[in-house]
């Protein structure tokens, strides 16, 4: 209860302080000649606009730097996933079930740190359907969930809104994808 009263007193004190400062500034400006007051206001506005411009540009610069650094960490993780999927689909390498499980565990760990919310959501959906695929034949659904995951990865690495239609991304490495659309 004491914290609430203290908080309210601080808020009231800040409100009164701001009101008092504004009132005093108003009294000072109302006593000046119009030309002098206009010059002072123009000078203050110029300084404030400059300060806000610098702060805003630094904020966006920092935000872009963080996004760039994140993208540099994400791309190797996603590249590793794409390599694994391409090897799996091309059957150039025989991948055992234990190797697949090991890769999925490691990939899950990596995207928990570096993946966007959308990529994590799509990865979760893909894994659930992949597990169901072992129990029943849902390979077509699994293919299209993979495509959604790949689209989420593309978006997370900087590609803007995708105009890729259903099956177009899969068509890059699945020759008969049109039969399933």
Topology:
Elements: H1 2-30, H2 34-90, H3 97-114, H4 117-135, H5 139-156
List keywords for this structure.
0% strand, 181 residues
- Category by helix and strand content: mainly alpha
Shape: elongated
Largest sheet: none
Unreliable spans are: none
- The secondary-structure element order is HHHHH
What separation lies between the terminal Cα atoms?
A: 64 Å
Tell me the β content. under 5%
Number of helices: 5
The count of DSSP E runs of length 2 or more, i.e. the number of strands, is: 0
The radius of gyration is 29 Å
Helical fraction = over 70%
User: What is the arithmetic mean of pLDDT?
Assistant: 86
Describe the 3D structure.
The chain is an all-alpha fold. Helix content is 78%, strand content 0%. The protein contains five helices and no strands. The longest helix has 57 residues. The mean pLDDT is 86.
